[in-house]
Amino acid sequence: MNSPLGIDDSVSAELTQLRRQVADLQQALAQSEQDHRLGRALSGENGAISGMVGTVEDITARKESELAEQAIQERVEARVRERTARLECAVRELKQEVERRQQAESALQASAQRYQFLYEHNPFMYFTLASDGIVLSVNRFGAEQLGYQAEDLIGHSIVQVFDSSERQTALQRLMACVAKPYTLLEWETQKIRKDGTRLWVRERARAIHDHMGVILVLMACEDITERKRTEKQRQETTRPLHTLVNGSALPLVGLNREGRVVSWNQAATRLIESQIRENEARWRALYEHAGVGIAQLTLDGRFLRVNPHLCKILGYPSEAMLERKFQDLAHPDDLQASLAHLAELLAGKRHSFSMEKRYRRIDHTWLWIDFTVSLVHAGSRDQAYLNAVIQSIDDRKQSYSLLHAAMNSVADGLLIIDRQGKVTSANQRFLSLWNISDELAECQDDDALIEAVADQLQDPQAFLDKIRELYTHPEEESFDVLCFKDGRVFERHSRPQILEGEIVGRVWTFRDVTEHKRAEEALRASELRLQQFVAEAPVGLCILDDNWRAISANKALCELTGYEKEEIIGSTYALYTHPEDLSANILLTDEFFRGIRSNYSYENRYIRKSGEIIWVSVKATRIELPGHEGPLLLSAVQDITERKLALEERERLSRDLHDNLLQALYAVGMQLEAGKLAMKHSARRSKTHMSQAVSQLNNLMVDVRRFIALLTKRPPTERNFEHALNELISSMTGADQTVPKLDIKSPVLSFVTAQLAEQFLSITREALSNSMRHACASHRWVQLSLIDNSIRLVIGDNGVGFLQTRRRRTGHGLSNMAARARHVFGTFTIQSAPKRGTIITVDVPLKKEIVYE
User: Fold this and answer.
1) Which long-range CB contacts under 8 A does 265-273 form with residues at least 24 apart?
2) From CA 839, how far away is CA 832, in angstroms rounded?
3) Contact predicate 606/560, CB 8 Å
4) Do the beta carbons of residue 478 and residue 488 sit within 8 Å?
5) Exposed/middle/buried for 623, CB within 10 Å: 0-12, 13-18, 19+?
6) What is the pLDDT of residues 531-584, one digit of tens each?
7) DSSP string across 718-770
8) How far does CA 652 lie from the centroid of its chain?
9) Which of 193, 110, 73, 93 lies closest to 144 in space, CA to CA?
10) Nearest to residue 493, comparing CAs of 503, 482, 504?
11) Are 474 and 503 in contact (CB under 8 A)?
């Protein structure tokens, strides 16, 4: 075992030296080719030119490169022409767009001029006022009607055109208009001209928000002075007629154009009183049988009269109710608000009030009611009383409580507002998301609430603009993203609140997506890092979809296969896989996508775009990517061509050492052992065995030199195949074994090449050596012949044989013989059975392009 290792070390040194010599030779040849590329003349002894000598250079690769560069240049030029055409088309479209915009601007200017003319000369007085009454603009007709120039009014308060007694009323009307934006209000009043004369006008006013959110008041005034003068004259004319009508015994009633009663005489009064009494009877029946609770109370809250339904819902008899005040039944938490509303009612600040409150029933349970109170004047302050309508809303309140609990249980912040922008409901999640205190939420100050919310945002103006836009268009839905100064991110969704087909408010939904956004950004960054890693990875990476087509390929894979990324994307690995390895690859991929295996590894061959065949190692595994349904196949590809070549070289060296050197040494040992045994019986026979051993050692030395020459790439010395075969067979004899019989059928030797002879000798040496050691045969033979257009080598014996299905111990003999047969494109077969010997057959087809390569 030490000798092969020593030989490997010397061979390695000689191989290194030989490669250096080959490199020097290639450099010298390259220099020679450069010197003689153009050729030179040959001169004879007398100096005359006798011929030309030159070299031929293979420029196929350069031409292919030039053609490829030309194709790329043509594609680039085609793309440039295509993009130039698109750019020209875009320029034409841009010119057309500019012309259309110029036409639109001209039309807009003309329209603006028409509207300005209409505004100035319209027969109505138009004013634009600030919220404090300062005149911002007035049309020419309005200024002229009041006897002023427009410059005299602009910048001054509108109250200067009113009488001093009317100015406070005018300001109150203006404030009422400002308090109700987008609500049309109208009234009749008198204005004072610059010369002091009066004129009656009907004013229509509406408050709006300008583009900056500032409140403006638009006011249109119609001159109704002549109509007022005509009405006064008509009243003076009809006064005698009224006296006559009032004294008539017939009931007379005056109606206006809309059919409403505007006057009646005394006879009609008596008739009306009779009708009133009849109506009181009807009202009393309605009062007694009404489906809601009705009560009359004194101004301090004592019950004067209650109907049966009120007694029913509270459980008290009417006598007990008349002994109490409403304060005795009200919940302590609701009492203060009730008294405050009552004080405003008695002070004349409101005509009535309504509120939801709790009343204590006779069983001491609390009942939610809707409480509506109005003040009824009966001629004097002392005779005035309160009229209350009480309706049970306990079921609705319970439903509202369930709804409120449901609102507080959701993960999103909810805010509900009415058509006027007032907050009607908000859940706890909304207050928590916006950091709104309970005090601010309970005060229901919309302006303070919006200000507190907007201050937390990076762009509060956009937030407010969106609110105003949706208030202007209540039917629209909206979705946007809000970014906070502290880094939080909310999704905001808004849609109208519809009740019985009518828009009654708006619902806002807020969702905190900060962590989700951060996760998306982290995922996006991770994907970018992964993409960079995949693109720059030192191994080829490719991702296949469930159609087995590539959806991604990195730079290393493109360099490995020689194909561009655009050529690989959308194609299968059949584009570059060797046809002989394709079926095994397809089987593995099919099992992967059918779920039989989740990963696999294999080695196969690729055919590069240049035609070069390389060996690669492929490791495939399952991955999942966003946006792709089902599993994807990730393949990592490494070039192992050098490792494969080194392994093949190592196997070849191992076969040569085993088949040639070791078997020859074993044969020498057999001869020496036979000579040693023969010394006791026959000196001549012992000498013969010794001579054969010496001869075999000499042949072994020749084989070693040939092996060294093969390693150093020096051509081995040619030997006569028939002579070498005879020597090999003669050496394969033991102490009690006969020489194997050799049978060569002519003309087979003429077809045996040096390469084929080397493999046949190695196979024969291995087979005979195995037979000598294991077969215990009395007869062995070697036959070489031509059979069916093939060279057939047969080595057989009549030894013990073996069972081919039996698992044998690990060895290299049979595998080496089979490998040598495949090396010359032959087939290797073995026939054996217990006690029936063993026959080894090698058939090599007579194909000139294979055998004589």
Assistant:
1) none
2) 6
3) yes
4) no
5) exposed
6) 666 667 778 888 898 888 998 888 888 888 889 989 898 999 888 898 888 888
7) P--HHHHHHHHHHH---TT-PPPEEEE-TTGGGG--HHHHHHHHHHHHHHHHH
8) 55
9) 193
10) 482
11) yes
pTM strictly above 0.85:
no
**Side chain identity, residue 467:** I
Please report which helix (H) or strand (E) contains residue 55, including its range. Answer: none
Residue 768 tokens read as 């005979």
- What secondary structure letter does DSSP report for 554? -
Whole-angstrom distance, CA of residue 843 vs CA of residue 485: 86
- d(CA 370, CA 395) in angstroms, rounded, equals 12
pLDDT of the residue at 810:
45
Closest to 679 (Cα-Cα) out of 599, 475, 488, 671? 671
pLDDT at 7: 42
In the chain, how long is the greatest CA-to-CA distance?
A: 184
Residues constituting the chain: 853
Number of H-type helices and E-type strands within the chain: 27, 29
Tokens of 242: 């009224």
604 membership: H or E segment, kind and range:
strand 599-607
410: which DSSP letter? S
Query: For 669-688, how does the pLDDT look when each residue is reduced to its tens digit (9 = 90+)?
Result: 777 777 777 777 777 777 77
Give me the DSSP letters along 482-548: EEBTTS-EEEEEEEEEEETTEEEEEEEEEEE-HHHHHHHHHHHHHHHHHHHHHHH-SSEEEEE-TTS
The single residue listed with the structure tokens 């039944």 is: 329
- H or E element: which one contains 216? strand 215-223
Q: How far apart are CA 241 and CA 265, in angstroms?
A: 11
Helix, strand or coil, per DSSP, at residue 439? helix
Q: Which two tokens stand for residue 602?
A: 């294999």
As given in the structure block, the two tokens for residue 570 are 């959308």
Rounded CA-CA distance 556/638 in Å is 9
Within 13 Å and on the Cβ side, how many CA atoms surround 52?
Answer: 8
Contacts of 464 (CB under 8 A, 6+ apart): 213, 450, 454
Other beta carbons within 10 angstroms of residue 545's beta carbon come to 18
Q: Which residue has the tokens 């005040």?
A: 325
Alpha carbon of residue 700 to chain centroid: 73
Q: What is the pLDDT of residues 83-128, one digit of tens each?
A: 788 878 888 888 888 888 877 777 777 766 666 666 776 778 888 8
